[in-house]
Amino acid sequence: MEQKEFHQVVTIAEARARLASHFRPVPRAEEVPLEEALGRVTFSPVTAPIDVPSFDRASMDGYAVRAADTFRADEEHPAELRLRGTIRAGERADVEIGEGECAAIATGAPVPRGANAVVMVEYTDREGDRVRVYRGVVPGEHIMAAGSDIMRGETVLREGVVLSPRETGVLAALGYETVRVYRRPRVAVISTGDEVVEPGRPLEYGRVYDV
């Protein structure tokens, strides 16, 4: 039996060039559910269809106020405000805050019209419909403005991004149920050799199973 010697080797770049001369993949896209997208690669850029958050929301439990009504408030001279109502997370803010007024608000709840700050509940005292504020706030304090995380129209993912839990979390926050990704390639492995035996068949002496 003639022995063959494999002394001729090529670089990886040349091997790739030879492969490319015979085979050129055609990229194809497919839509996959977000829960199945981990590790997939985005086919095209993804833009934000909405602001995140989509409304001004409270970042602390407390009271939604007009900041100007609290500027001089301290422990000895608290600002006294009239309570207009309560706003919980997930509810619509149907009250409007005027001068000398406030509304109890939960973390994540929408800030009512007229209010431009939130006083933490720890710096207040309530009796009936009267709320005393012992620490002043500035406009925007403890409020997460609409679009402060992601702005509508912003490109959040570019083409060719490998999707990790971070990226899929962003897509979920934007309301995406599916994502357009590259279709996975189909790969075939062909084993050769006189000694190779298909698994499940009897293994004769000198043979090996195809792995």
Give an overview of the whole structure.
The chain is mainly beta and 211 residues long. The chain has helices at 12-22, 165-173, and strands at residues 29-33, 46-47, 57-58, 62-65, 79-87, 101-105, 117-120, 124-127, 130-133, 143-144, 155-157, 178-182, 196-197, 208-209. The strands form 5 sheets. The protein has a 6-stranded mixed sheet, with no helix packed on it. A two-stranded antiparallel ribbon has the order 1-12. A two-stranded antiparallel ribbon has the order 2-11. The chain is rod-shaped and about 105 Å long. The two termini are 26 Å apart. The model has no long low-confidence stretch (mean pLDDT 94).
What is the count of helical runs? Answer: 2
Largest sheet: 6 strands, mixed
Tell me the strand percentage band. Answer: 25-35%
Shape: rod-shaped
The assembly state of the depicted protein chains is: single chain
Flag low-confidence runs: none
Radius of gyration equals 32 Å
- End-to-end separation in angstroms reads 26 Å
Helix content: under 10%
Give the structural class: mainly beta
Strand ordering within the main sheet: 7-4-6-5-9-8
What is the number of beta strands?
A: 14
